[in-house]
Amino acid sequence: MIRLGLEVFLKSNVSLIEGKKVGLLTNQTGVDNELNSIIDLFYNNPRIKLTAIFAPEHGIRNEHQAGVGFQSYVDKRYNIPVFSLYIPSVKYVSLTSRNLDKRMRLGVSSVGKSPTSKMMEAIDVLVFDIQDVGTRVYTHIWTMALCMRICAKKGVSFIVLDRPNPINGVTMEGFVLKYPKNSSFIGLY
User: Which GO terms describe its molecular function (predicted)?
Assistant: First the structure.
């Protein structure tokens, strides 16, 4: 049986975050083998002080449409802040299949895809647990990269809870991105 990073972490590594203010960057894919949400598992664990949830594109429960930004809020179930890492911008162009790429190329910082300094004040460590699909255009990997940048600048620990690649985790195909010329939120590097 495959042991997910979440399960290994809860069994053997909780001490890494014990006594710290913990932020969690996740969505509906952050579950264990019994489909228990990482949010529930962290929130209900007496050794973990969950102080903030960071929401990527689509939100923590996949409640938002692709490419549509959303605001931060306080989660009613947990009574903790959910910080949007997909905040709408006045620079957005209308969402159509023809201009989605243009919209994504407006710039990473202009569309609120990185945590702010204020958001970072709520945490000592940020834990990432999102299933990736192994393609460059899947935005969650780029959200992770931007959060890693901010954590490094702020001296905040960053922990990745790994999940198996659904494609195969070995084969690399496709074009190499010309960086930074063609860099966008659907292909940062």
Answer: peptidoglycan beta-N-acetylmuramidase activity
User: What letter would DSSP give residue 110?
Assistant: G
Three-class SS state of 125: strand
Residue entry with tokens 């202009």: 110
Does a structural domain hold residue 71?
yes
- Residue 133 CA to residue 152 CA, distance in Å, equals 25
**How far apart are alpha carbons 22 and 41 in whole angstroms?**
13
* Rounded Cα–Cα distance for residues 64 and 169 (Å): 28
Number of domains in the chain: 1
Which pTM value belongs to this model?
0.82
Give the pLDDT means over successive 10-residue stretches in the chain (189 positions): 92 96 96 96 98 93 83 93 81 52 52 84 96 76 89 96 79 71 66
Q: Look up the domain containing 17 and give its range.
A: 5-160
- The Cα 100–Cα 28 span in angstroms is 24
